[in-house]
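User: New here, any thoughts?
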Amino acid sequence: MIRPTAFLAPLGFAAALAATPTLAFDINAMSESEKAAFGEAVRAYLLDNPEAIVDAINVLEERQAQAQAQADFDLVDQYADALFDDGFSYVGGNPDGDITLVEFLDYRCGYCRRAHPEVAELLAEDGNIRVIIKEFPILGEASLISSRFAIAVKHVAGDEAYKQAHDVLMEFSGDPTDVALRRIAEGLGLEPDPILEAMDSDAVTQEIATTRSLAQALQINGTPTFVLHDELLRGFVPADQMAVMVADKRG
Protein backbone atom coordinates (compact mmCIF):
# COMPACT_ATOMS: atom_id res chain seq x y z
CA MET A 1 0.00 0.00 0.00
CA ILE A 2 1.38 3.43 -0.99
CA ARG A 3 1.15 6.26 1.51
CA PRO A 4 -0.96 9.24 0.39
CA THR A 5 1.94 11.63 0.99
CA ALA A 6 3.83 10.02 -1.85
CA PHE A 7 1.46 11.72 -4.26
CA LEU A 8 1.56 15.22 -2.74
CA ALA A 9 2.83 17.91 -5.11
CA PRO A 10 6.18 19.35 -3.90
CA LEU A 11 4.90 22.76 -2.89
CA GLY A 12 1.79 21.40 -1.30
CA PHE A 13 3.87 18.88 0.55
CA ALA A 14 6.25 21.63 1.72
CA ALA A 15 3.28 23.63 2.94
CA ALA A 16 1.97 20.61 4.82
CA LEU A 17 5.36 20.17 6.49
CA ALA A 18 5.48 23.84 7.47
CA ALA A 19 1.97 23.73 8.90
CA THR A 20 2.64 20.57 10.90
CA PRO A 21 5.97 20.79 12.75
CA THR A 22 5.71 17.20 13.96
CA LEU A 23 5.35 15.87 10.43
CA ALA A 24 8.64 14.42 9.20
CA PHE A 25 9.43 13.37 5.67
CA ASP A 26 12.12 10.80 5.06
CA ILE A 27 12.38 9.55 1.51
CA ASN A 28 14.71 6.79 2.68
CA ALA A 29 11.87 5.34 4.71
CA MET A 30 9.80 4.83 1.56
CA SER A 31 9.53 1.59 -0.30
CA GLU A 32 10.80 1.48 -3.86
CA SER A 33 7.26 1.74 -5.20
CA GLU A 34 6.56 4.72 -2.96
CA LYS A 35 9.74 6.44 -4.15
CA ALA A 36 8.75 5.83 -7.77
CA ALA A 37 5.28 7.22 -7.17
CA PHE A 38 6.67 10.27 -5.39
CA GLY A 39 9.13 10.89 -8.22
CA GLU A 40 6.35 10.73 -10.79
CA ALA A 41 4.29 13.17 -8.72
CA VAL A 42 7.21 15.62 -8.58
CA ARG A 43 7.82 15.29 -12.31
CA ALA A 44 4.16 15.84 -13.11
CA TYR A 45 4.03 18.90 -10.91
CA LEU A 46 7.09 20.47 -12.51
CA LEU A 47 5.78 19.80 -16.00
CA ASP A 48 2.53 21.49 -15.07
CA ASN A 49 4.31 24.34 -13.23
CA PRO A 50 7.67 24.95 -14.98
CA GLU A 51 7.87 28.40 -13.41
CA ALA A 52 8.70 26.63 -10.14
CA ILE A 53 12.03 25.59 -11.67
CA VAL A 54 12.79 29.19 -12.66
CA ASP A 55 11.89 30.37 -9.16
CA ALA A 56 14.18 27.76 -7.62
CA ILE A 57 17.07 28.72 -9.91
CA ASN A 58 16.60 32.41 -9.08
CA VAL A 59 16.67 31.67 -5.36
CA LEU A 60 19.80 29.53 -5.79
CA GLU A 61 21.60 32.22 -7.82
CA GLU A 62 20.69 34.88 -5.27
CA ARG A 63 22.02 32.75 -2.42
CA GLN A 64 25.22 32.02 -4.36
CA ALA A 65 25.70 35.73 -5.12
CA GLN A 66 25.21 36.62 -1.46
CA ALA A 67 27.66 33.93 -0.39
CA GLN A 68 30.26 35.13 -2.93
CA ALA A 69 29.83 38.75 -1.85
CA GLN A 70 30.35 37.84 1.80
CA ALA A 71 33.37 35.72 0.91
CA ASP A 72 34.84 38.68 -1.01
CA PHE A 73 34.28 41.04 1.93
CA ASP A 74 36.10 38.55 4.14
CA LEU A 75 39.01 38.29 1.68
CA VAL A 76 39.42 42.06 1.47
CA ASP A 77 39.47 42.28 5.26
CA GLN A 78 41.97 39.43 5.53
CA TYR A 79 44.40 40.91 2.99
CA ALA A 80 43.83 44.60 3.75
CA ASP A 81 47.49 45.38 4.49
CA ALA A 82 48.71 43.86 1.22
CA LEU A 83 45.96 45.63 -0.71
CA PHE A 84 46.19 49.10 0.76
CA ASP A 85 49.73 49.42 2.08
CA ASP A 86 52.16 47.05 0.34
CA GLY A 87 54.94 49.64 0.21
CA PHE A 88 55.56 49.46 -3.55
CA SER A 89 52.35 49.92 -5.57
CA TYR A 90 51.70 53.31 -7.12
CA VAL A 91 49.38 55.50 -5.03
CA GLY A 92 47.58 58.35 -6.80
CA GLY A 93 44.44 60.40 -6.72
CA ASN A 94 44.21 61.91 -3.25
CA PRO A 95 46.68 59.95 -1.09
CA ASP A 96 44.73 61.12 1.99
CA GLY A 97 41.31 60.29 0.52
CA ASP A 98 38.62 58.74 2.66
CA ILE A 99 37.90 56.02 0.07
CA THR A 100 40.52 53.80 -1.57
CA LEU A 101 40.13 52.25 -5.01
CA VAL A 102 42.58 49.46 -5.93
CA GLU A 103 42.81 48.26 -9.53
CA PHE A 104 44.44 45.03 -10.73
CA LEU A 105 45.16 45.60 -14.42
CA ASP A 106 46.86 44.34 -17.55
CA TYR A 107 48.00 46.77 -20.25
CA ARG A 108 46.86 44.44 -23.05
CA CYS A 109 43.37 43.99 -21.59
CA GLY A 110 40.63 45.66 -23.62
CA TYR A 111 38.35 46.14 -20.62
CA CYS A 112 41.23 47.66 -18.64
CA ARG A 113 41.63 50.17 -21.44
CA ARG A 114 37.92 50.92 -21.30
CA ALA A 115 38.14 51.33 -17.54
CA HIS A 116 41.11 53.71 -17.71
CA PRO A 117 39.15 56.87 -18.65
CA GLU A 118 36.33 55.83 -16.32
CA VAL A 119 38.70 55.77 -13.36
CA ALA A 120 40.18 59.11 -14.46
CA GLU A 121 36.67 60.59 -14.63
CA LEU A 122 35.83 59.30 -11.18
CA LEU A 123 38.99 60.81 -9.71
CA ALA A 124 38.41 64.11 -11.49
CA GLU A 125 34.86 64.41 -10.17
CA ASP A 126 35.67 63.23 -6.65
CA GLY A 127 38.77 64.72 -5.12
CA ASN A 128 38.68 62.50 -2.06
CA ILE A 129 39.53 59.11 -3.55
CA ARG A 130 42.89 57.37 -3.15
CA VAL A 131 43.78 55.05 -6.05
CA ILE A 132 46.29 52.19 -6.00
CA ILE A 133 47.49 50.44 -9.16
CA LYS A 134 48.42 46.77 -9.02
CA GLU A 135 50.40 45.52 -12.01
CA PHE A 136 48.87 42.14 -12.85
CA PRO A 137 50.09 40.97 -16.29
CA ILE A 138 48.18 37.80 -17.22
CA LEU A 139 47.70 38.03 -20.99
CA GLY A 140 51.06 36.88 -22.26
CA GLU A 141 54.60 38.05 -22.80
CA ALA A 142 53.64 41.49 -24.12
CA SER A 143 51.66 42.13 -20.95
CA LEU A 144 54.59 41.08 -18.79
CA ILE A 145 57.06 43.25 -20.70
CA SER A 146 54.74 46.26 -20.45
CA SER A 147 54.37 45.84 -16.69
CA ARG A 148 58.10 45.37 -16.25
CA PHE A 149 58.67 48.61 -18.14
CA ALA A 150 56.13 50.56 -16.09
CA ILE A 151 57.51 49.29 -12.78
CA ALA A 152 61.09 49.96 -13.91
CA VAL A 153 60.10 53.55 -14.72
CA LYS A 154 58.76 53.90 -11.18
CA HIS A 155 61.94 52.47 -9.67
CA VAL A 156 64.24 54.63 -11.79
CA ALA A 157 62.31 57.88 -12.21
CA GLY A 158 59.62 57.96 -9.52
CA ASP A 159 55.84 57.95 -9.20
CA GLU A 160 55.05 60.88 -11.50
CA ALA A 161 57.01 59.33 -14.34
CA TYR A 162 55.34 55.98 -13.64
CA LYS A 163 51.88 57.52 -13.97
CA GLN A 164 52.85 59.09 -17.29
CA ALA A 165 54.24 55.78 -18.58
CA HIS A 166 51.14 53.99 -17.30
CA ASP A 167 48.86 56.34 -19.24
CA VAL A 168 50.88 55.88 -22.42
CA LEU A 169 50.90 52.08 -22.13
CA MET A 170 47.12 52.07 -21.67
CA GLU A 171 46.79 53.55 -25.15
CA PHE A 172 49.79 51.91 -26.81
CA SER A 173 48.68 49.40 -29.45
CA GLY A 174 52.02 48.22 -30.79
CA ASP A 175 54.39 45.52 -29.61
CA PRO A 176 56.48 46.54 -26.57
CA THR A 177 59.82 46.01 -28.28
CA ASP A 178 63.01 47.58 -27.01
CA VAL A 179 62.76 50.18 -29.77
CA ALA A 180 59.17 51.03 -28.89
CA LEU A 181 59.92 51.25 -25.16
CA ARG A 182 62.92 53.47 -25.82
CA ARG A 183 60.70 55.82 -27.79
CA ILE A 184 58.13 55.89 -24.99
CA ALA A 185 60.83 56.68 -22.42
CA GLU A 186 62.33 59.39 -24.61
CA GLY A 187 58.88 60.85 -25.25
CA LEU A 188 58.49 61.22 -21.49
CA GLY A 189 61.85 62.93 -21.22
CA LEU A 190 63.49 59.92 -19.59
CA GLU A 191 66.81 58.22 -20.26
CA PRO A 192 65.90 54.76 -21.68
CA ASP A 193 68.98 52.73 -20.78
CA PRO A 194 68.60 52.67 -16.97
CA ILE A 195 64.90 51.79 -17.35
CA LEU A 196 65.51 48.94 -19.80
CA GLU A 197 68.27 47.61 -17.56
CA ALA A 198 65.98 47.71 -14.51
CA MET A 199 63.19 45.80 -16.25
CA ASP A 200 64.76 42.42 -15.47
CA SER A 201 65.91 43.34 -11.97
CA ASP A 202 65.06 41.21 -8.96
CA ALA A 203 63.08 44.12 -7.48
CA VAL A 204 60.77 44.32 -10.49
CA THR A 205 60.37 40.55 -10.65
CA GLN A 206 59.55 40.39 -6.94
CA GLU A 207 56.95 43.14 -7.20
CA ILE A 208 55.08 41.30 -9.95
CA ALA A 209 55.35 37.99 -8.11
CA THR A 210 54.00 39.52 -4.89
CA THR A 211 51.03 41.03 -6.68
CA ARG A 212 50.31 37.72 -8.41
CA SER A 213 50.34 35.93 -5.08
CA LEU A 214 47.92 38.48 -3.65
CA ALA A 215 45.62 38.11 -6.65
CA GLN A 216 45.65 34.35 -6.22
CA ALA A 217 44.78 34.69 -2.54
CA LEU A 218 41.89 36.98 -3.48
CA GLN A 219 40.74 34.51 -6.15
CA ILE A 220 41.25 37.11 -8.88
CA ASN A 221 41.67 35.53 -12.30
CA GLY A 222 40.69 38.35 -14.63
CA THR A 223 41.26 42.04 -15.29
CA PRO A 224 40.24 44.61 -14.47
CA THR A 225 39.40 43.74 -10.90
CA PHE A 226 38.76 46.53 -8.41
CA VAL A 227 38.70 46.71 -4.67
CA LEU A 228 36.53 49.63 -3.64
CA HIS A 229 37.04 50.34 0.05
CA ASP A 230 35.93 46.94 1.38
CA GLU A 231 34.35 45.34 -1.68
CA LEU A 232 35.70 43.32 -4.60
CA LEU A 233 34.36 44.37 -8.01
CA ARG A 234 35.19 41.69 -10.55
CA GLY A 235 35.15 43.28 -13.99
CA PHE A 236 34.57 46.59 -15.75
CA VAL A 237 32.53 49.17 -13.83
CA PRO A 238 31.56 52.55 -15.37
CA ALA A 239 32.43 55.75 -13.51
CA ASP A 240 28.82 56.63 -12.71
CA GLN A 241 28.23 53.25 -11.06
CA MET A 242 31.43 53.52 -9.04
CA ALA A 243 30.41 57.03 -7.95
CA VAL A 244 27.14 55.65 -6.59
CA MET A 245 29.03 52.91 -4.73
CA VAL A 246 31.45 55.47 -3.29
CA ALA A 247 28.57 57.61 -2.04
CA ASP A 248 26.96 54.54 -0.50
CA LYS A 249 30.14 53.59 1.35
CA ARG A 250 30.43 57.09 2.75
CA GLY A 251 26.91 56.67 4.10
